[in-house]
Amino acid sequence: MEKKLNKRKGSQSLEFTNPPVILSTACVVGKKEGEGPLGAYFDQIEEDPMFGGKTWEDAESKMMFRTANLALKKAKLESKNIRYLVGGDLLGQLIATSFGVESLEIPLIGVYGACSTMGESLAVASVLVDGGYADRAMAITSSHFAGAEKQFRFPLAYGNQRPLAATWTVTGSGAVILGDETNTVLYSGHKVHVRAVTFGKIVDYGVKDSMNMGACMAPAASSVIAAHLRDFNLIPAYYDKIVTGDLGSVGKDILIDLMRQEGYDISKNHMDCGIEIYDPEVQDTHSGGSGCGCSAATLCGYLMNHLKEGKWKRILFVPTGALLSPVSFNEGQSVPGIAHAVVLEAV
Amino acid sequence: MEKDLKKVTAAQVSQETESEKKKALYNQYVGQMTPKHSWFKNLCRAWLIGGLICVLGQALTNLFISQDMQKDQAAAYTTICLILLAIIFTGFGWYQRLAKFAGAGSVVPITGFANSVAAPAIEFKKEGQVFGIGCKIFNIAGPVILYGIFSSWLLGVIYWIWTLFQ
Questions:
Q1: Which of the residues in chain A have pLDDT under 50?
Q2: What is the ipTM score, two decimals?
Q3: Closest-approach residue (CA) in chain B for A146
Q4: Do B42 and A205 touch (CB under 8 A)?
Q5: What stretches of B34-141 show up as alpha helix (H) in DSSP?
Q6: Which chain A residues touch B85 with a CB distance below 8 Å?
Q7: In the A/B pair of chains, how many CB contacts fall below 8 A?
């Protein structure tokens, strides 16, 4: 029983006593992401925006299916070896996930955390593995530019000007397979573990601008990072990088400012997947990338690469989500934010 | 209000304990942190492209009049031609690029209206002829049509009342 109590840390964190190890990661992205600065780190770049499907939603499902299979292949596993799948996406009722993974026949825990979904699914999967409820579990998510535009904004061919604070939804999917200590790790380099998790609260500072998601999410990111550092009694420099999901350049400035108010300076080691994934000048993406696929593909490609190769020892991965609903938005509600922090460590 | 006079800092936002005030301060702070399109540049671009669309319309009208058309008829044909052009542009994904540059210059003319009808039609075609195109074609243009008709009716009523007193 003593072990059980030890897992709880501070007010909202948990520390794994049997840290799950990452057995494999896979990421599949679209053409635009492949042309971006992180292009070389992605496993597959698909030129066809439809991914061989008939609709945007179908395209996203196909992309997710391909990512899941790639992750299995890299770990030399079959879908029956995975006990639980934790996943979600941006589309209503998680249709990209349900149609994407149905043929894998893995018991599914569907989660929704907007663009923070990778953090949420990774955290839940880690809890399952650490607790001994699963020997292997997969965390997966995806987003597709066209599907997201259609659902949340305007039809693709509609002519309008995007504000400078707007972000560009990443077409991409990322999958992580976690396992307990009985598994063998096939990749070379350092083994990457999930050490701890801090689940975030919904933080709403009353921003009603759906084209400025960075500003909606920055307070949530600041809240969870500060809570994490307090719960574990750490300073920001403990991490080689504190990596947020998709705050973009506007959200990044706000986060650093808000963190200073909490008494932490993260300006030196903060990084944002949304800023890294595109070149704003050449690719005309304005504030940066966004969407579930943004942090997921960056984690499974770029971040994992740096951890495996020992360039970083420890990172705090903080995918951020703006809980935007076209219904509540039209009804005059603000866009609340959420973020979850996951500690990844290379050993 | 006093707070409008000077810039809001993150410190002010985090120190504010009352939820509604905090939200107001944060929104003001976000406004300061968010870059905006230059309105002057947008104004010039809108004037240029909007003007060019009108020049094209005038050229078409002149062409039709030179073909012995009445002015009314020429105007109708001009409108049809501009709408057709805008829909073709939308289909090829060019109108979107034009709008990115031109802003209101491409939204205000009839071509913008055509684009706002054609774009949902293309997007929602996959959801079927009835529930896709049928229900969603006026997704964006719907309010313009509704309130356009409503305001012309209202003005008609006002005009009618006015004529009673003549």
A1: 1
A2: 0.92
A3: B123
A4: no
A5: 39-66, 71-91, 94-102, 104-107, 110-124, 135-136
A6: none
A7: 105
